Amino acid sequence: MNLAFIGTGIMGLPMAGHLLAAGHRVTVTSRTKSRVEPLLAKGATWADSPAAAAKDASVVFTCVPDTPDVESVLLGKGGVIESARAGLIVVDHSTISPSATREMAAKLVERGTTLLDAPVSGGDIGAKNATLSIMVGGDAAAFATAEPLLRHMGKTITHCGGIGTGQLTKLVNQILVSVTNLAVCEALTFAKKAGLDLPKTIQAVGGGAAGSWQLTNLGPRMITGDFAPGFMIKLQQKDLRLVAEATKELGLDLQALQRVTELFDRAGAEGRGNEGTQALFAMV
Hints:
Blueprint: E1 2-6, H1 12-21, E2 25-29, H2 37-41, E3 45-46, H3 50-54, E4 59-62, H4 67-75, E5 89-92, H5 98-109, E6 114-117, E7 120-121, H6 123-129, E8 132-137, H7 140-150, E9 154-161, H8 165-193, H9 198-206, H10 213-224, H11 233-250, H12 255-269
Parallel strand pairs: 1-2, 1-4, 2-3, 4-5, 5-6, 8-9
Antiparallel strand pairs: 7-8
Helix pairs in contact: 1-6, 4-5, 8-10, 8-11, 8-12, 9-10, 11-12
Domain 3-hydroxyisobutyrate dehydrogenase-like NAD-binding: 164-281
Domain 6-phosphogluconate dehydrogenase NADP-binding: 3-161
GO molecular function: NAD binding; NADP binding; oxidoreductase activity
């Protein structure tokens, strides 16, 4: 198929690479052309704008940081909407506002283009290994078309419902991820203070009821002080802002969520925004 991929950061680069490896023709564009050089070397085609990338594509994938970025890529000058047409499917892998997603979908559908919101979970490891969990909201027929492509990038693909439900499900994911991260930080802080062998402690508890992705993947990085980003703190802050907006709309007061948000905000204020979320360990 002719595909387009917009946004080739930590997540988008390997995801687009999997589509290329599967034999599809992929046109790419990004804010910084140098980021896509590995894809161009493997046969991808460069486009100067999202509109140009989408011109001949059947499916367009986007993976950019925040709601304004998606709005710019899809609806702004040189955006996908300039190439929108009947039958075009846009799959947005960004984590953004559910309400903004619905608004953008409504504008694209006026041109015959269908938007699927498909945020992902699994971090850079999942992106590189094509084992991401992908939560999809939107039209069922469009999902059926996109699903075989998504399976090149992810292991667990779930159609969550109508447009916006993928984003809402991702917010559920981020509550679980962030609060579990804090639990791992506090548990390992306790273990360190108690004089335990930290690698052995992770091994001992990781296979039982206390096991989690956060403990297995981030725990070893925490105890060695490896705070290189898989998923950056500043992006976790953005996601927690989206969760806060949604909880306010729903009239919820989630105490653990508030505490972990405070700690991530403190980490950001201390200049740790570009570090991985495991750097929360330094805040506990």
